[in-house]
Design goal:
Elements (H helix, E strand, L loop, with lengths): L4 H16 L5 H9 L20 E4 L2 E3 L2 H11 L6 E5 L5 H8 L3 E6 L2 H13 L6 E4 L12 E6 L8 H5 L1 E11 L4 E10 L2 E10 L11
Parallel strand pairs: 3-4, 3-6, 4-5, 6-7
Antiparallel strand pairs: 1-2, 7-8, 8-9
Helix pairs in contact: 1-2
This protein binds S-adenosyl-L-homocysteine.
């Protein structure tokens, strides 16, 4: 696939739309303006890639809406070199946005097909440094913890204890919590046993399912 002037133009308009909807972080807007979202979608959806919508990526999963990606990334306050765990690789788009911001990205996916696809796509797009794992996100990645940042991109019925434990002190986790509809929650780990939870706006995600899909 190619990244043409037409795609770049659509991407600029998408960024302007996100700005109008309230996204303020210039670095986040720049990352979205840089990364060709159509590379993550099926060729059939190429012309829809720059609408502010979620799209199917196979295996009953979706690539999140650009607004949701921008909103969550802004909440995450990612800085260069931050060790960042993403749960729910899906298309790999969010992982690349984090890498674009200079984070050291670790991303987990429970669907083998999606994991395999991202494993090929991400290095080919110039992000060989993103570390991908075919694992159950409920368990996190204990051997790489603690993480400065954790982002969960599937709707979680509750906040898994393992993910709290793997958050560095002073770290931030952004996670949509709720069984059917979710409330975005920003969790800050203030001290070993002190977590501050800030409930934010309503969202709807595909479910955070326990265990691998084998
Ligand atoms: N961040 C993705 C959005 C993917 S949708 C993107 O940018 O495209 C959510 C993803 O979470 C799906 O791919 C789904 O398979 C995955 N998921 C759900 N439960 C999971 C679990 N327990 N562990 C890891 N991934 C999970």
């Amino acid at each position: 696939m190619e990244d043409t002037y037409r795609h770049k133009g659509m991407r600029r308009r998408l960024v302007e739309g996100l700005r109008k909807r309230g996204i303020r972080d210039e670095k986040v807007l720049e990352a979205i303006g840089t990364l060709p979202r159509h590379f993550f979608l099926d060729k059939a959806f190429e012309d829809h890639a720059y609408q502010d919508k979620a799209f199917p990526i196979g295996n009953d999963q979706t690539i999140s809406q650009p607004y949701t990606v921008a909103y969550m990334t802004e909440l995450l306050e990612v800085e260069k070199r931050h060790k960042t765990l993403e749960v729910g690789t899906g298309s790999g788009y969010q992982a690349c946005i984090l890498a674009q911001l200079g984070a050291r990205v670790y991303s987990i996916e429970r669907q083998k097909d999606l994991y395999d696809r991202a494993k090929t796509l991400l290095p080919s797009m110039g992000y060989p440094q993103i570390r991908l794992f075919y694992r159950d996100g409920y368990k996190g990645l204990p051997e790489y913890a603690p993480f400065d940042r954790i982002i969960v991109t599937a709707g979680a019925p509750y906040i898994p204890e393992a993910l709290r434990e793997q958050l560095a002190i002073g770290g931030i986790m952004v996670i949509p919590v709720g069984e059917y509809d979710q409330t975005m929650v920003r969790v800050r780990r203030i001290a070993e046993n002190l977590f501050e939870e800030e409930p934010l706006g309503p969202f709807r995600f595909v479910p955070f399912v326990e265990g691998l899909n084998e």
